[in-house]
Amino acid sequence: MNTLKKLQQYMGHRKALFPLSMVLSAFSALAGTLPYVFIWLIVRELFASGGISASGDITKYAWWAAGCAIGSILLYFGALMCSHLAAFRVESNLRYDAMQKIVRMPLGFFDTNTTGRIRKIIDDNASVTHSFLAHQLPDLAATILIPLVAAVLIFVFDWRLGLACLLPVVISMTIMSMTMGRKEQQFMKSYMTSLEEMNTEAVEYVRGIPVVKVFQQTIFSFKNFHNSIMNYNKMVYGYTRMWEKPMSAYTVIINSFVFVLAPVAILLIGNTGDYSSVLLNFFLFVLITPVFSQSIMRSMYLDQALGQAAEAIGRLENLTTFDLLSVAKDPKTLEQFSISFNNVSFSYPGTTQKALDDITFFIPQGKTVALVGASGSGKTTIARLVPRFWEVNSGQVLIGGIDVRDIHPTELMKHVSFVFQNTRLFKTTLLQNIKYGNPDATIAEVERAVDMAQCRDVINKQPLGLETKIGTEGTYLSGGEQQRIVLARAILKNAPIVVLDEATAFADPENEHLIHQALTELTKGKTVLMIAHRLTSITDADNILVIDKGKIVEEGSHPELLKKGGIYNNMWNEYQQSVRWTIGKEATHA
Q1: Residue 522, SS3 per DSSP
Q2: Which of 56, 219, 536, 538 could disulfide-pair with 370, CB 3.0 to 4.6 Å?
Q3: Distances (CA, A) of 564 to 46, 401, 540, 546, 558
Q4: In DSSP terms, which residues pair with 141 in a beta bridge?
Q5: Which residue has the higher pLDDT, 141 or 527?
Q6: Could you report the per-residue pLDDT of 362-407, keeping only the tens digit for each?
Q7: Interacting residues of 190 by C-beta distance below 8 A, sequence separation 6+
Q8: Nearest-angstrom CA–CA distance, 445 and 155
């Protein structure tokens, strides 16, 4: 019932349709049982008259039976119409509410939740609630009411035959109740988790298909995807086998009531000699008893659907209960754009190991600081704390002397541009992709950003220029070309703070040269925090921080760090050796 209360909160103004649907379904169920009674009355008249006759009573009963059947259908149609309207509102409100919360999540949320998983949880789980509310829930009234009415009819006409036909029903219900319960809940949780895993791995596999084709590999190259499918298969197969014997026993017993009812009827005829009354009641019980079977099956589907809906709501709540970014009651406005880290420590959610440990440094406004270090040392974590992807555990991240937590998230995002090694373009026109940096920009401003980002050649070779669409409906760009479009977007934004996370990591030599030119334009006069693996790209940085295991182990300009002869000096020497080795290898093959 807690699940129903949660779902009612999303019905809005259509909340009244929910009880109306139940009432209409109940009346539909009652109307649906009356034809059995009228058929029994018709048979009774036939017994009384000794044969077929077109008496007025028989005709009247026949019309009443037909009218009740039609009325039951119309009432059920009305019940489904009301339930569907309420279900559609719940489904749309669930999606809307979830997306409203998702867009307010810190950007770090999207590092720990893949797009496939987010889509699966929001879209598919909202659809699960629709099926439950629109189809299964209206049957709840019938599931409860019809067996009660049928039981009353049975015991009113002949309690002895009533007990005989109820015996298989009780046995079959006992079998089902023993099978369902906690195992059902555990399976539903595992089932939906497995679907999420398969959906996530499927998205990753589809994205990696070009790699599979290039290296002529098979699906087994993506072991996670294959394992998720096999785990799902094993779980569902085991669950199906668990139901094999109970379901077989249930089906046989629930449909064997005639084998119990007939001997009892024969004994009653032998003891009473009133064959007409007993046969007449026997006929009624043969008509009504299958109603119990239908009700049990409905209750099973209803219980399963309720479990699915509860699990769906729980997963939506777990996804959206991620800590939102706090907003200061009196947010401050940025006027200066220096960056300070004061004794910052940070651990990722769900871990105890510190990703950053007591980090302190300062970037004066308009200066450039580079971060270098081994993979996993904490460079990207530092960069992502500036635009507040995550909240620090201790210490402060300051911009212009103001704690980022005291700056409204919108204000913070307006003053920070970040370019990562993994580019993200939308499936729309090049113009719209660039204007994401500044939706109010003029065409002239866009053209200027295109030239500064060194991507004029990318635009000119497209059939529709800036109006060319990206993706299946338009064209595809190389990684370096995409990176330059992203830089044009960042240049158009013209934010005073720029965060660069190895923007040239995957570029070919030609694109790398053009991207460096674009970065020069992007960072002119800006406060820049950059991460670099190619050390030649940071030799002109005002300050270089060497990060190791979440700590700053060295600091200084490029010449100063070389003089120290420490970690940075070793990194530089190794980098130079690798460059000379590459050049030498190319010369050998020339």
Answers
A1: helix
A2: 538
A3: 112, 31, 18, 12, 10
A4: none
A5: 527
A6: 999 999 899 988 888 888 889 889 888 888 889 999 999 999 999 8
A7: 235
A8: 85
